């Protein structure tokens, strides 16, 4: 049925059942049947399918489907995408010929539908059509990864050295996605406190107080706290609280102001309901500057108590927040630390060195300031290679790594529960041969870092490296939730979902990243082309592929699309360019092109060549990444049933392990 053909007339909304092909949708039973046998389908996926079935042959826009399946509820596009994935699996619709995607417009149910008056009681559940496994449901964050997974993550961390530390997020200020999930009740964003001082020179103090309160709240069990980069991205904007809460997808917002005069400081804090804008709690603290730490603790304690009273009742109040006595801190050291954090977060030219100098000044005044040691280690990390530092900022790894280890050791001696320090130090412990100690430390980092977006993202990257993309996507999804305006986290999520075979969700993540920052669209263009080709949406793939810059990705796209369309001359020309390319990564493209063309022999020949190179390649992370890209590529799925695939997989894994053992030794 063509898109512009006359659609079948909508069928009655009150019918007890609808039949199409071998399937029956039994409305009263809430069941999908195939030849009388029940096919598993989640209730929400059933609702989406029911709406499509009631409007066969008609273009149904995405917004219309969302409104029909989630009336009155604001949800992300990911929710609909997951339902469509499950529906297609249940129908065995691998080729997307039943539930068709009309690019940029919506969906079309392309089977004739008839009303059925009576449905027999279904038999036992059957497997999804064409023996597809049931769609994987999103993992819950209620449970941490198993100890086995932690151990595997650690092995990879040792294998790739410190390179996995380079993940990070810089502040983003573009508009967030238009549609978000409804916020959880126990969720909050802490905005930078406004400087109200007469001289207007205490911005760093307002930022620092807000960040310290954020860090205290992040330790509250059951409370989701948005990361600093997202909360502080509204700095200088005139957005109202409702807009901020909606963009960050939180139920509550904490705002405030700071006014310093001499040695006294006045801090005002207000907890605001994100939906109504009503003030839930507010208080002003007029204290000596040296008592500011107790003030921060009091604000965090009051916020945690008020939130719990609202959600669980007053009888439970006070049990969530574990208030600890404020440790005396040198005020000059604390101010130097806050200035360092200000420059580290601003990240303009020369700011990393300025930040390091302020952290060093803070530690010279007060060597017991644990957070300054962690921050100092972070500056060494950035100078070692994160985001291509300027020549004057660069530190060679042989210089940076010992400095980092020393700083992290001092931080953990002072604050044994710091999640970022725990995770970074676990590599050093493992490299020294104490694997069990390192695993224990990594588990602690997972436990205490559930509100730490960077920790979640780092763990996600490691999970991907050990070949567990579903765990990787789950961890990265939480990072994106904690830091919702970070395009770094959304882009990583897209790649992790792509590796997990959840291509619709991956494409959605890439599109959301582009909405936040249009400059990221070019970075993710190649992956979006592969998704469109795999879905046989060749017109979309050609349109996207034309935007690729000259290089391997463009040649791969032209080789595939030309072959599919019968333009063999163009396809062969693109293939010839890949064959002539001196780049090592060209082998990865060639394997996928030959597999797409159905030339398994050539695909295996090139995968052998690529393996020889990646095993001997000096960059261990690239080697692991290339190996996993082969395993995750949707274009190589036809090769998986060939006996040569299992042989290649086992041999390559052994070769990589041997190489890593040699390097660690």
Describe the structure.
There is one protein chain. The protein has 27 helices and 14 strands. With 665 residues, it is of the alpha+beta class. Among the domains are: 17-131, Winged helix-like DNA-binding domain superfamily/Winged helix DNA-binding domain (Arc Repressor Mutant, subunit A, Orthogonal Bundle); 147-152 and 155-170 and 347-448, Serine Threonine Protein Phosphatase 5, Tetratricopeptide repeat; 187-316, 3-Layer(aba) Sandwich (Rossmann fold), CATH 3.40.50. Strands 9, 10, 11, 12, 13 and 14 form a six-stranded mixed β-sheet that branches. It has a five-stranded antiparallel β-sheet with strand order 4-3-2-1-8, with helices on one face. Strand 1 and strand 2 (23-26) form a beta hairpin. 44% of the residues are buried. Residues 1-6, 122-182 and 312-323 have low confidence and may be disordered.
Brief write-up:
It contains 27 helices and 14 strands. The protein is of the alpha+beta class and 665 residues long.
């Amino acid at each position: 049925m063509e898109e512009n053909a006359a659609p079948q007339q909508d069928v009655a909304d009150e019918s007890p059942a609808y039949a199409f092909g071998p399937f029956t949708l039994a409305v009263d039973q809430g069941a999908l049947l195939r030849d009388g046998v029940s096919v598993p389908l989640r209730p929400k996926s059933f609702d989406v399918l029911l709406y499509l079935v009631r409007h066969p042959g008609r273009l149904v826009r995405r917004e219309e489907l969302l409104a029909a399946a989630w009336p009155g509820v604001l949800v992300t596009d990911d929710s609909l995408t997951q339902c469509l994935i499950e529906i297609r699996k249940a129908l065995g619709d691998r080729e997307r010929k039943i539930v068709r995607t009309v690019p940029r417009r919506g969906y079309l149910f392309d089977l004739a539908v008839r009303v059925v008056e009576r449905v027999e009681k279904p038999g036992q559940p059957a497997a999804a059509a064409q023996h597809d496994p049931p769609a994987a449901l999103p993992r819950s964050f209620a449970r941490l990864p198993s100890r086995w997974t932690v151990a595997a993550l650690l092995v990879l961390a040792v294998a790739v050295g410190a390179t996995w530390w380079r993940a990070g997020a810089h502040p983003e200020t573009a508009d967030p996605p238009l549609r978000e999930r409804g916020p959880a009740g126990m969720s909050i964003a802490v905005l930078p406190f406004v400087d109200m001082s007469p001289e207007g020179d205490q911005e760093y103090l307002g930022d620092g107080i807000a960040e310290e309160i954020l860090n205290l709240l992040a330790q509250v069990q059951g409370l989701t706290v948005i990361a600093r980069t997202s909360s502080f991205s509204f700095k200088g904007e005139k957005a109202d609280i409702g807009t901020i809460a909606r963009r960050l997808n939180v139920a509550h917002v904490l705002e405030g102001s700071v006014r310093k005069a001499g040695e006294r400081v006045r801090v005002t804090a207000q907890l605001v309901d994100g939906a109504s804008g009503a003030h839930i709690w507010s208080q002003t603290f007029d204290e000596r500057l040296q008592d500011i730490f107790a003030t921060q603790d009091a604000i965090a304690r009051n916020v945690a108590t008020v939130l719990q009273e609202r959600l669980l009742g007053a009888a439970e109040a006070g049990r969530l927040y574990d208030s600890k006595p404020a440790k005396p801190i040198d005020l000059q050291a604390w101010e130097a630390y806050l200035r360092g954090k200000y420059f580290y977060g601003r990240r303009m030219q020369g700011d990393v060195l300025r930040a390091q100098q302020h952290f060093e000044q803070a530690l010279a005044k007060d060597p017991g300031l644990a957070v300054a040691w962690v921050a100092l280690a972070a500056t060494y990390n950035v100078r070692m290679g994160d985001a291509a530092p300027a020549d004057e900022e660069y530190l060679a790894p042989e210089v940076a790594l010992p400095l980092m280890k020393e700083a992290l050791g001092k931080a953990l001696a002072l604050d044994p529960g710091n999640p970022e320090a725990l995770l970074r130090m676990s590599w050093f412990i493992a490299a020294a041969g104490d694997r069990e100690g390192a695993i224990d430390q990594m588990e602690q980092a997972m436990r205490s870092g559930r509100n730490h977006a960077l920790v979640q993202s780092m763990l996600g990257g490691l999970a991907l490296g050990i070949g567990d993309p579903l765990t990787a996507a789950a961890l990265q999804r939480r990072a994106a939730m904690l830091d919702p305006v970070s395009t770094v986290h959304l882009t990583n999520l897209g790649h992790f979902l792509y590796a997990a075979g959840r291509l619709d969700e991956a494409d959605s993540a890439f599109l959301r990243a582009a909405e936040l920052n249009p400059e990221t669209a070019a970075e993710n263009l190649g992956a979006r082309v592969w998704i469109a080709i795999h879905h046989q949406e060749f017109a979309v793939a050609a349109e996207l592929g034309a935007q690729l810059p000259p290089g391997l990705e463009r040649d791969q796209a032209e080789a595939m699309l030309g072959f599919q369309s019968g333009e063999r001359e163009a396809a062969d020309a693109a293939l010839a360019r890949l064959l002539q390319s001196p780049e090592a990564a060209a082998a990865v493209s060639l394997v996928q092109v030959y597999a797409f063309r159905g030339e398994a022999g050539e695909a295996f020949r090139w995968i052998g060549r690529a393996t020889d190179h990646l095993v001997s390649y000096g960059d261990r992370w690239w080697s692991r990444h290339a190996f996993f890209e082969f395993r995750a590529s949707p274009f190589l799925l036809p090769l998986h049933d060939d006996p040569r695939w299992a042989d290649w997989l086992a041999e390559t894994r052994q070769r990589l392990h041997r190489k890593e053992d040699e390097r660690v030794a």
